[in-house]
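Subgroup meeting minutes
Present: P.N., E.W., G.H.
Scribe: E.W.

1. P.N. recapped why we're keeping a running log of single-chain structure predictions: easier to compare across weeks, and new members can see raw inputs and outputs side by side.
2. G.H. added today's entry (332 aa).
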Amino acid sequence: MEEKLFWIGILMGAHLFLSHHFKEKGRFKEDSRFVRGWHALFSGLVGLVGMVLLMVSLDNRRGDVVPTMLFTGRQLVYGLVVGLGSAAYAWWKSAAWNVEIKDGMHPRMKEDMEWSETIFSAVLLASVVMYLFVQAFKIPSSSMEKTFLVGDHLFVNKFIYGFRIPYTHKKLIRFAKIKRGDIVVFQFPSSDPREFQCGGSQYGKDFIKRVVGLPGDKFEIKNGVIYVNDEKAGDEPYAQYLDQFRYPPGAMRTPPAEYQKYWEDRMLGKMFSEYIRDNFGPVTVPERSFMVMGDNRDRSCDSRYWGPVPENLVKGKAWLTYWPPSRMGLPE
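Output recorded in log:
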């Protein structure tokens, strides 16, 4: 979302820059066809931007948007239709203008420039805040119950693991390292939109899970019990197990080296399906990567099925649930 806001800010900034240029050239001193056309263009931009943001918001709620795409064709078409309609309406209304020119500038142009400056500043500031500091996130599934419920809204702390350089995976000024037990939001580790995991294409989507394995850890699950470096994991009060049935070992005859490779290549879920839910590994978490799982252990599509999460895909740490008010607070 922050990239979308950034480019919308650039668009409004270009309009503001050209408006100041035309003002200096004296193009806004009289009620001319140019002034009416420039006002219609501004109205069209506002309609385009408003409709595109509305479509993005609705699509995000439905989970229909791939965040790595700037804008979908559908969003742009709807935005252009509304933008053209707004521009046409503004041009039609301008025919009835009866204004008095004051201070050497058409009052409509002055008003449009003020709004353009406000929108530009607000959108650009919002994009910077969302990119570097805080991101809003909505829980899309039950994989993190009982910590988070479907529909919970939370803020993600994006700077705690470092400020990400725009359009790269490099980070600067790390305030904390990712620890076992942290709840992290990350981009799904796939570079192919055609790859199907968890019942569909997850390419570019944001996931939220809990870190259960750090780089270099030997990780294994036996009959639903987690072992890290051959020791049983400590108490996990946040973990939830709803299924009384446990799948028997079904993939353990695979040679360890091949099993590790299948896991890192995100193939285990496709090969063994639910048989790796309760009996998994052992695998070694690769360097600069993490093993993540949902707290709702029997109802979570996570690293067991599609492999480790590279550190450069981690966006931030779950910080604060802000909606609904009855669930407001810090996650455990």
